[in-house]
Write a structure and sequence with these properties.
Layout lengths: L2 H11 L11 H11 L4 E7 L5 E8 L3 E6 L8 H15 L5 H6 E6 L4 H6 L20 H13 L3 E7 L4 E3 L8 E4 L11 H18 L6 E3 L9 H7 L4 E6 L9 H20 L16 E3 L1 E10 L7 E13 L2 E12 L5 E7 L5 E2 L14 E4 L2 E4 L4
Parallel strand pairs: 3-4, 3-5, 5-9, 7-8, 11-14
Antiparallel strand pairs: 1-2, 2-4, 6-10, 7-9, 11-12, 12-13, 15-16, 16-17
Helix pairs in contact: 1-3, 1-9, 3-9, 7-9
Keywords: Hydrolase, Metalloprotease, Protease, Zinc
InterPro entries: Peptidase_M14
Cofactor: Zn(2+)
């Protein structure tokens, strides 16, 4: 399937009731009601705060694919793209008939509904579910584990979102989408099932390079059996980590949402039509490893105080805060130092002037506001 065809499908089937960063059970439940006539929808468990964890099953094929999103409650881009995918399957049944005849998908759209509601990474017991794969101390972890055992997937899609700090390698290119074929032992052995995951990632990368060249990364594969992906890989199930990252000025993650959708379609189409042996895994190693090279804003060449000689850069990172059921981005000064090895998604040249905040005080680390003042000019840090 060609990229332009997939992009056309996205525009046609984008779920308009889901947008921006704050996605909870309240947002998806009306959609689940609409899907119920076409998709098997079950409550497969309850969260710490007794919120429902939903499971959706579609397809009738022998290739079983388990997909779960919002294990971290504040990582919602992949959830939006899941509903775009479901809309596509239901409304383009003839186009995807062979895919759904070859594959059965089991989807958990929000594994951590409490974290989603509070817009936090952790669950209501302050546990990172992606570090609970061995202890299984949390009800949400137990739900995923029970489904893994009963569904017996051939592929696992571990769906996440990543911060704006990541670059695709040591470059000024943002890692807009990242992947990982997790390790399954301390030696990070390239095992047969890892090769299968790598091959699928290579297919997605080939597709994405046509849209966002040099903006795809992979994560370091250091092994941690407490992580869910590493555990499932360790049990010989090809597992793929998806990370939805930052595209220029796309703080709502709507462009990235489309890119994740394209990744879903290209990978599922490949799985449905291919006997994957892992023999084509080597293209995975052409993808650069993520590095932390970005801040949201860098103010260059700022003079410190009355010194004529001390010039530094100011790094600003946006803090995501849930205010009145909406995510607000609050700029915060993280560092004041020489940042020549870093890039800003937005860069401002102070041209040797001092940088002030409110009350005409020089900005300092931890300063939070939506603007600064340079040479008597008020400058907004977050582009509208």
């Amino acid at each position: 399937m060609q990229v332009e065809e997939i992009k056309s499908l996205f525009l046609k089937h984008k779920e308009t009731n889901l947008f921006h960063r704050y996605i909870t059970n309240k947002h998806i439940e009306p959609l689940l009601n609409n899907l119920a006539n076409h998709v098997t929808v079950d409550v497969i468990g309850k969260s710490v705060l007794n919120n429902s964890i939903y499971g959706l099953k579609i397809g009738e094929g022998n290739k079983r694919i388990l997909m779960w999103s919002q294990m971290h409650g504040n990582e919602s881009t992949t959830t939006k793209a899941l509903f775009d995918l479901l809309n596509t399957f239901l409304n383009e049944s003839s186009t995807f008939k062979s895919l759904l005849e070859a594959c059965t998908l089991y989807i958990i759209p929000i594994l951590n509904p409490d974290g989603a509601q509070a817009y936090t990474r952790i669950n209501a017991n302050h546990v990172d579910l992606n570090r609970d794969a061995q202890n299984l101390s949390q009800p949400e972890s137990q739900v995923l584990r029970a489904l893994f055992k009963s569904f017996k997937p051939h592929f696992c899609y571990n769906l996440h979102g990543q911060r704006t700090i990541f670059s695709a390698g040591n470059t000024n290119k943002s890692a807009t989408v990242s992947f990982l074929a997790p390790a399954q032992d301390d030696a990070c052995t390239i095992t047969p099932n890892r090769k299968i995951a790598m091959e699928v990632i290579g297919v997605m990368n080939d597709t994405l390079q046509k849209i966002i060249p040099n903006q795809v990364g992979v994560y370091d594969d250091a092994f941690n059996l407490n992580c869910v992906g590493d555990t499932f890989q360790n049990e010989n199930i090809p597992t793929i980590l998806f990370e939805a990252g930052h595209y220029e000025n796309d703080y709502e993650r709507e462009v990235t949402r489309e890119l994740i959708y394209i990744s879903y379609i290209s990978s599922l189409n490949y799985i449905s039509n291919t006997i994957i042996t892992g023999s084509n895994y080597k293209s995975y190693f052409k993808i650069p490893e993520n590095e932390k090279r970005f801040f949201d804003v860098i103010i260059r060449n700022a003079r410190e105080g009355n010194s004529d000689e001390k010039i530094n850069d100011i790094a600003i990172q946006f803090q995501e805060k849930l205010i009145d059921n909406k995510i607000e981005l609050i700029p915060k000064v993280e560092k004041i130092e020489n940042l020549s090895d870093f890039y800003g998604h937005k860069e401002i040249n102070a041209n040797g002037f001092e940088v002030f905040g409110v009350n005409n005080q020089l900005v300092k680390t931890s300063y939070e506001n939506v603007f600064v003042i340079i040479n008597h000019e008020k400058i907004l840090l977050l582009s509208k």
